[in-house]
Amino acid sequence: MNDVLKNIEQIRSEALKAIENVTGAEALERIRVEYLGTKGRVTELTRSLGALPKEERPAAGQAANKAKVEITQAHKEALEALNAAKVSAPALDVTMPGRRPALGHRHLIPKTMDEICGIFAKLGLSIVEGPEVETDYYNFEALNFPHDHPSRDMQETLFVGDKLLLRTHTSPVQIRTMEKTKPPVWIVVPGKTYRRDDDITHSPMFNQIEGLVVDEGITMADLKGVLTAFASAFFSPDTKIRLRPSFFPFTEPSAEVDIACVLCGGHGCRLCKGSGWLELLGSGMVDPALYGFVGYDPEKVSGFAFGMGVDRAAMLKYGLSNIRHLYEGDLRFSRQF
Ligand code: FA5
User: Fold this and answer.
1) pTM of the shown model
2) Binding site membership of 203 for ligand 1 (Cβ less than 6 Å)
3) Which end of the chain, C or N, has fewer beta carbons within 10 A?
């Protein structure tokens, strides 16, 4: 091999080796300029071939051309590999501001449940829970709803099997607790309840908080006192309540409890439909018939109970016009509370 061909081979192998070991785009560009640039080694070599004796020129020209093609191709591939690496692994810029994780927001219902339970806890009631799938016995029978009694119709029950249903109220936990506990009983029961209901103030799934106090010498004055204390803590300090005669199979006497309208304070407006009052919950003195189901002595103890719609309480407190706002999962709504 003559000197020219040896020189071409040396330049070719040096260039390919340099490209193979390259670690960055800048170094690769320097290699390109060194070999393929206008004053690069390959370019100078090609230019110098004209000075060779005529018989040596074809072989040298071919070798130089082949070297140039190989180096150009190797450079192209190295550049593509570097670009691909840049896309798949972007450089870490430690000076960039951090990304704040998207935070959710506590929903108004659990917030209201906690607030209401907290108020009753301060009055000395303990929190108890019960099952959402309930038996006919606890939801109706032991609460003194006779089997064919029309009062069952009001409860719009969703059955899930024979004698098995989604509880329509939290009242079954009254029986479950009294069965297990000797008096005195001072409890509140928060939880989900279900009925075949659906309009702007009724939802198929809603929430109730039950209250039950059974002790010696409990009277309706205690019921009114506890609920007045609740209304002033939850709504505003001077909120008035009134008890209106009603009927529940498990309380006698029974009363619906209204609060003075949160908008007009009792004068009468659009919200309270001119009456000055808003319905909040059902309540009454525990019907002695229940004590027969749980083995309490009606001569010794008496008690009161109430059941409040939590969704209703939140709607009244925050002036919500439609119960569905509570179940649409819209953060723009939830974040307001
Ligand atoms: C009861 O459920 C009785 N268990 C309450 C009770 C307990 C009375 C203890 C006496 C002693 P009522 O069906 O009225 O009663 O429901 C109570 C509250 O639940 C209502 O005032 C209302 O605020 C709420 N409520 C009832 N159905 C729905 C519904 N579909 N959607 C939203 N809230 C509802």
Assistant:
1) 0.73
2) yes
3) N
Judgement on whether residues 125 and 62 belong to the same structural domain of the protein: no
Is there a domain that residue 202 lies in?
A: yes
- The two tokens of residue 204 are 């198929």
Q: What are phi and psi of 318, to 5 degrees?
A: -105, 5
Substitution site in 152, 192, 206, 258 for ligand 1 pocket (most atoms within 8 Å of beta carbon): 206
- Which helix (H) or strand (E) segment holds residue 311: the answer is helix 310-318
Taking the CA of residue 16 as centre, how many other CA atoms within 13 Å lie in the half-sphere pointing to its CB? Answer: 13
Q: Is a pLDDT exceeding 70 seen at residue 192? A: yes
pLDDT recorded at residue 1? 59
What is the number of the ligand 1 atom nearest to the C-alpha of 212?
9
287: Cβ below 6 Å to ligand 1?
no
Q: Which two tokens stand for residue 286?
A: 């525990």
Kindly give the number of the ligand 1 atom that is closest to the alpha carbon of 282: 8
Nearest CA-CA partner of 257 in 209, 203, 319? 209
For residue 102, tell me if it sits in a domain: no
Least confident of 1-5, 43-47, 228-232, 305-309: 1-5
Shared domain for 76 and 123, answered yes or no, is no
CATH number at residue 198: 3.30.930.10
**What are the tens digits of pLDDT across the range 20-50?**
998 888 899 999 999 999 998 988 888 888 8
Query: What is the span of the domain harbouring residue 185?
Result: 108-334
pLDDT for 90 = 65
Q: Is residue 31 part of a domain?
A: yes
**Are 161 and 205 contained in the same domain?**
yes
Q: Report yes or no on 14 lying in a domain.
A: yes
pLDDT at residue 189 tops 80: yes
Residue 169 near residue 193, CB atoms below 8 Å: yes
- The count of domains in the chain is 2
Could you tell me if the CB of 282 is within 6 A of ligand 1?
A: yes
